[in-house]
Input
Amino acid sequence: MVKKIIKISVFIFAVLSMTHALEPLAHGAHKASIGEVVVVRDSALKLSFVVRDAMNNDIEEAIKNSIPTSFTFTVKVNRKRGLWRDKNIGKWKFNHTVSYDSLKDEYEVYHEETGKRRIVKDFNQMVDLMVTGKVVSLTPMPRFKDGDKYILKIKAKLDTVKLPFHLDHILLFVKLWDFETPWYTYEFTS
Output
């Protein structure tokens, strides 16, 4: 009985040590960020942006090995309220997803915010489509009050798409390159 407890304790310690050792790879090694943000307010609230340093060799290899991959973009707009907690007046989420067809040697990129799919053969063009949001309409548009101050925040998260036939258990390494950018903050007055 004591030997069994010792074996279980050693196993748990080994697993925890391994998880702790891999943590910097999963969270600290990838330094992607949001940049080149442009916000336009006319009949709708429109946003353009780029995710910098979004790809690394592991992500590129996974995509080229036909593992579907998505960027999930989250956008929030808050009204600043001085001493009170800022009030959320809008939140949007949308994905950019890529699938690689090795037989045709082409990438299919789907932009959820527009419902459009693009098929490209060039890897760099696929990366540009995945990391760039061009004039994304955030609808419905929040109601802005003249003179009030607002904060628009955006972040990106990279996730692998769920794999079929329990491959996600076999390809556990894939989760090591998931990442999330810090929030990019843009302040404006209505």
In short: Strands lie at 33-41, 45-52, 69-79, 87-101, 106-111, 116-120, 132-138, 149-160, 179-180, 184-189.
